[in-house]
Design goal:
This protein has one domain: 5 Propeller (Tachylectin-2, Chain A), CATH 2.115.10.20. Helices cover 4% and strands 38% of the residues. It contains three helices and 25 strands. The longest helix is centred in the middle third of the chain and has 6 residues. The chain is globular. InterPro entries: Sialidase_sf.
Length: 440
């Protein structure tokens, strides 16, 4: 998904772990205390994913088939064009995850269009698949995707305000001549179980005025934007949890304030009506601190309980010393009757971070009041100093109950596999070494 996605290690910085344990944040509005379920990690045999993955694992049951959609598709002037967004099947999650690269199939995906034309620009990664409950066949799917662009692939259009201006643009991951990417979030639709997809458009983004440029942006991450999402259905809405990387206002290098940038960043939430997924452009609303009132390209507010406090290392995303949570993966737990969120933690440049955290929300209905904001303080789930840990997720087991209930990464029971992308200079693997067990 990001400039970091498909990351080839040219160099790696020493990971500085700023601290372990519980994190706490400020409050934007009054929220009730959140009860915290118990959990433990049970070591198990290493389970390796046998193909390419560089994002949250998007998946669904299509009939009696468990289908996964990892990978990247589309143009990328920094890393090159990719045709790695594919799908594989299994009778259960274990079988699908064990498929080799040759077992994956390539779906029909929309092609990129030239700059300044309407259509798909940049590369996409599927992050979540929402399955239309009105289609009993299970073949109607909505793929929520992370999209990355650069001034080259999406140049600024003064008429629409879309795109980016190649001036004072921050550095990317491949050295001084490489540009940083901008992330956006969109939706594609499939009516044949994911064998072909139609692009429905971008429905959350930050535009040029909110990009953080030189000289302030030196983190080698993003120029700004929204990305790395996880989406779950609750009531009449699809709730989108995502990383917020832009400036909470109009960026100006002469008036830039690091504290202001930090105040608007971390994991945020937006929502869109399920009935609007076919035509999502302009329909989503971002949480603004009081309600879901901000426009799709407006200024929202992060979930304050997930923000890393400044005394314990919190800081702006554009700084190489800024600390923030990112890459949420959200699931409904039928045993706990609660939402569970996993997330990564950035503590240095180039997405450095060796810890995985977990948070809970015991409100089944996310639409009421501040329910979507009521997440518990993140607790440390896994630490691996010296590694980069990205895209943590919980996945179903191959137990008869998980198969009968057709569980996925969006709906899980008392036990689930913990997967994470583990990156060292010499290799990158997506694997599970633990089963997580919850207790009430």
């Amino acid at each position: 998904m990001m400039t970091k996605k498909g990351f080839v290690w040219l160099a790696i910085e020493l990971v500085v772990v700023l601290g372990l344990g519980f994190l706490s944040g400020g409050t934007q509005q009054a929220v009730k205390p959140v009860s915290t379920p118990k959990f433990k990690l049970i070591p198990g045999k290493k389970f390796y994913f046998n193909s390419f993955v560089d994002c949250n694992m998007a998946e669904a049951w299509v009939g009696d088939t468990f289908r996964i959609f990892p990978g990247k598709h589309g143009e990328d002037p920094v890393w090159g064009y990719s045709n790695e967004l594919k799908f594989a099947d299994g009778r259960n999650a274990d079988e699908a995850f064990s498929r080799g690269a040759d077992d994956f199939k390539t779906p029909a995906l929309p092609k990129n269009v030239p700059p300044n034309q309407a259509g798909l620009h940049g590369a996409v990664w599927f992050e979540t698949v929402y399955q239309d409950t009105h289609d009993r066949s299970g073949r109607t799917l909505y793929g929520v995707y992370h999209n990355e662009n650069y001034p080259e692939t999406l140049p600024y259009d003064a008429g629409t305000g879309e795109g980016y201006i190649d001036k004072d643009w921050p550095q990317g991951l491949k050295g001084p001549t490489s540009p940083a990417a901008v992330c956006r979030i969109g939706i594609m639709k499939s009516t044949d179980g994911g064998r072909s997809w139609d692009n429905r458009g971008i429905f959350i983004e930050d535009k040029q005025p909110r990009m953080i440029l030189k000289p302030q942006n030196t983190s080698l991450t993003f120029a700004g934007g929204v990305g790395d999402p996880s989406a779950v259905a609750s009531g009449d809405y699809l709730y989108l949890f995502y990383g917020e990387y832009g400036y909470p206002g109009t960026y100006n290098p002469t008036t830039y304030a690091a504290d202001k940038e930090y105040s608007g960043q971390c994991i945020s939430v937006a929502r869109i009506r399920l009935d609007d997924l076919d035509n999502p452009v302009g329909k989503a609303r971002r949480w603004d601190g009081r309600g879901f009132n901000a426009l799709p390209d407006g200024i929202g507010a992060p979930i304050m309980s997930l923000q890393i406090p400044k005394p314990t290392g919190g800081g702006p995303a554009s700084s190489p010393t800024g600390g923030f949570h990112w890459g949420p993966s959200v699931s409904w737990n039928t045993y706990l009757q609660a939402w569970v969120m996993l997330m990564g933690k950035v503590v240095g440049p180039s997405w450095a971070g060796s810890d995985v955290f977990i948070s809970f929300n015991t409100n089944a209905d996310l639409s009421k009041g501040t329910n979507a904001q009521q997440w518990s303080k993140p607790q440390l789930l896994l630490s691996r100093p010296g590694h980069f840990l990205w895209y943590p997720s919980l996945q179903p087991l191959n137990t008869p109950d998980d198969m009968a209930q057709k569980r996925t990464c969006l709906k899980l029971g008392r036990e689930a596999r913990l997967f994470v992308k583990d990156i060292l200079p010499e290799k990158s693997v997506y694997l599970s070494e633990y089963v997580i067990q919850f207790d009430k």
